Amino acid sequence: MKYLALGRSGLRVSELCLGTMTFGEEMGLGAPRPECQAVFDAFLGAGGNFIDTANVYNRGTSESMLGDFAASEREHLVLATKYGLSTRGDDPNAAGSQRKNLVQALEASLRRLRTPYIDLYWLHGWDARIPPAELMRALDDQVRAGKILHIGISNAPAWAIASANTIALERGWTPFTAMQLHYNLVERSIEADFLALAEAQDMAITPWSPLASGLLSGKFSSGAAPAASAGARLSQPARAARVFDERNRRAADGLVRMAAEMDCRPAQLALAWLRQRHPSPVLVPIIGARNRGQLAENLGCLELQLDAAQLARLDELAPPLPGYPQSLLDSGFFQQLMYGEVRGRMPHRAYRH
């Protein structure tokens, strides 16, 4: 396992992150404690040091298990958890990113994780009701108090992340150093804006659901329905239908055929594509596993080195549709309008910083 700098932070993390949504069985999709302990130990044994959880995973059980498992290894680990989703449905102050919820959620996570500080604290989703300045100041207060070392953001618009970071940097507060986003071979919407944002502001990306809720693991043939556990992970029938639609199934079938040609597992190939497609920014996929066999299979992606032709072939399985305004800006028509007759004599250079 190699170690990468997590964006602007300089924090060194393993090139794969262990996601622990499956630690606990309260949400009907996890594993019992002994198996979770085995997965945790195997990940550390492989050199992993980056562990991701959230205060809502299995109603806090994931954090509590991690607190027990990590107690003797705390100084060697990079622990990340999240806040922002409702923990008490009838309490408006136990939801969202506002300061009261931040303070009480953080204190509860610290108790469950049995640690005095969190290495990376994620906002679980963008809360449009809270002014960005209030959010960034509240997070910075916890950094200055020593309870958080670095902050990240998940499931937020690119403009919101850029705005919040700009406010923080202008005022000497702590900016986001990483983004946790939905990204995989068949869900590539973030390529329109977020990769450029990460490069411009020196942020890492940790893709969640890198195997598209199991679709890219090779478990589902083109004619098979998703298993109940996959539907549970998706939580919404409409979203399950989108993930397992005909376009994505065709891409998954192509991935399976290519993996067979290369004598590897489809999951390994999908993860290798995710890790190697972009030289920058840093991408650290979050892998989940309900048992040691799944973990070992996913870790096998580290042994795959894809060449340019293989990456291009995978790209073609489910290419993202170009969206406005980039589709217009990249067109020959618009480039001619912008640069005139000298367009062909100007080497392309995208300004990022």
Task: Give an overview in words.
The chain is α/β, with parallel strands linked by helices and 353 residues long. The chain folds into two domains: 3-321, TIM Barrel (Alpha-Beta Barrel); 324-353, no CATH class. The protein contains 14 helices and ten strands. It has helices spanning 33-45, 61-69, 99-113, 132-144, 158-170, 194-200, 228-234, 237-243, 246-262, 266-276, 292-299, 308-315, 326-329, 332-339, and strands spanning 3-5, 12-14, 17-19, 50-52, 78-83, 118-123, 148-154, 176-182, 204-208, 286-288. It has an eight-stranded parallel beta sheet with strand order 9-8-7-6-5-4-3-10, with helices on one face. The protein has a two-stranded antiparallel sheet with strand order 1-2. Helix 4 (132-144) packs across helix 5. The longest helix has 17 residues, at 246-262. It is globular and about 65 Å long. The two termini are 30 Å apart.
Structure in a nutshell:
The protein is of the alpha/beta class and 353 residues long. It has 14 helices and 10 strands. Helix content is 40%, strand content 13%.
* Alpha-carbon Rg, integer: 21 Å
Q: Within the CATH hierarchy, at the fold level, what is the topology of the largest domain?
A: TIM Barrel
Separation, N- and C-terminal Cα atoms: 30 Å
Q: Number of domains in the coordinates?
A: 2
> What series of H and E elements makes up the topology?
EEEHEHEHEHEHEHEHHHHEHHHH
Residues in helix, %: 25-40%
